[in-house]
Structure formats: structure tokens, C-alpha cells
Amino acid sequence: MPFQLEVVEAALLSRIQRLERRLMHVEPRVAALLEVLPNRLTGDVLEQLRLSKQSLVELGSRAGDLKQMLIDLLEDPHEIRRICIMGRNCTLDKVSDDMECAVPLEKQVAEEEEEEIEMLLENYLQRCESCHGQAERLLDSAREMEDSIAVNLSSRRLEVSRVELLLQVGTFCVAVGALIAGIFGMNLKSYLENNTWAFWATTGGIAVGAVAGFFIMYKYLKDRKIL
């Protein structure tokens, strides 16, 4: 194999293997996170998801750039022929882009190398597309998981808001009862203090009124679809 092809293949092989190693390192980690989420929402798990997503974005970007470079190179026969004539006494015709060599044998060898280069680039393009496609699929899964986590957190916040609203309604009803008790607690004569049944009647009325007020407010909020 000519030295130029060896350099090209060594560079492509090194780059592709580096991308494949990074993908093999990230893929099990993402798969493990997808199994535990969204049931296990902890700070460490969410941080691992963020780092994994960042690694996938970077990996997909690099694989996409390499993929596009290989596609552009395969679609440009002139560039491939320039690689073939390196180190040979050959030139490219500016009009027809045909190879012109001083020795006919060199032209034949250069044409054979052109096919070898195309096959070489197509081989690494397939590997790069596989790596890029897998990185994109994992990234889509991570993004879907983030959406699921966001929906889960929104649902939890809604439940907390409902509980807070119910507590506020209950607090309001109890406060009304405390207002009535405060009124009767003033040191002013109302002539009710002389009756033995007044205390129990007032206490019962406040309790019944607070419970009734709570359920009335609850039904109102349900009808308005606030709860």
C-alpha cells in the first residue's frame, strides 16, 4: 500500500476507534440510568444523566463532522485523484479531470488506487455512520427521559400544591372558628355566660361550622377544577 494510503487509513482508524471506545464507555452508563429513572430521582443520578448527555452530544458532533467529511470526500473525485497522484509523475487535466502520467503503468496503478481509496473511505464511512447513529439514538433516549423526569416533577409539584391549598382552606375555617371564640372571650356581658348550655352549644356550633365550611370550600374548588 502506498504511504499516502497508509497515512489516511491510520488517521481514519485512530479516529473511528476513539469514537467507538467512547461510545462503548457511555452506552452502558446511559442504559443503567434509563433503568433506574424516573423512579429514583436523586442529585447524583441526575448529575450522571447530565454528564452522559453532554458526552453523547460531543460524541455525536464529532462523529457527524467526520461522517460529513467522508461524504464530501467521496463526492469529490478530484480530491481522491489528487491523493492517488501524490509522489508520482502525474498531473490532472483541468478540464476533463483525467490523469495524465509520464509512464502508462503509473496511470494504471493510480486508477487502481483510486478504487481502493473509495472502498477504504466507504468502509470507514459505514463505521462512522453506525457510531453516529447509535450516539443519536442514545441521546434521543436521554432527552425523552429528561422529558419524563420533568413531567414527573411537575406532577409532584402539583400534588404538593394541592396539599398546601387544602391546608390553607382548613386553616381559614379554623381561623373563623377562632374569631368566634375570641368574640365570646371578651370581658363583655352577653348574658350567655349565665346559661350552662351556652358553652357546649357554642363549641359544637364552631366545630360543625368549621367542618361544614371546609367541605363547602372543597366542593367549590372541585367544581371550579382548581383541585
From TrEMBL:
Pfam families: MRS2-like
SUPFAM superfamilies: Magnesium transport protein CorA, transmembrane region (SSF144083)
TM spans (from-to): 165-185, 197-218
CC annotations in GO: chloroplast envelope; membrane
Keyword Transmembrane among record annotations: yes
Gene3D superfamilies attached to this UniProt entry: Magnesium transport protein CorA, transmembrane region
InterPro entries assigned to the protein according to its UniProt record, in alphabetical order: CorA_TM1_TM2 (IPR045863), MRS2-like (IPR039204)
Localization of this protein: Membrane
Membrane topology: Multi-pass membrane protein
Principal cellular location given in the protein's record: membrane
Keywords noted in UniProt: Ion transport, Magnesium, Membrane, Transit peptide, Transmembrane, Transmembrane helix, Transport
GO terms for MF: magnesium ion transmembrane transporter activity
Family indicated by similarity: Belongs to the CorA metal ion transporter (MIT) (TC 1.A.35.5) family.
Described function: Magnesium transporter that may mediate the influx of magnesium.
Protein's UniProt name: Magnesium transporter
The species this protein was found in: Aegilops tauschii subsp. strangulata (Goatgrass)
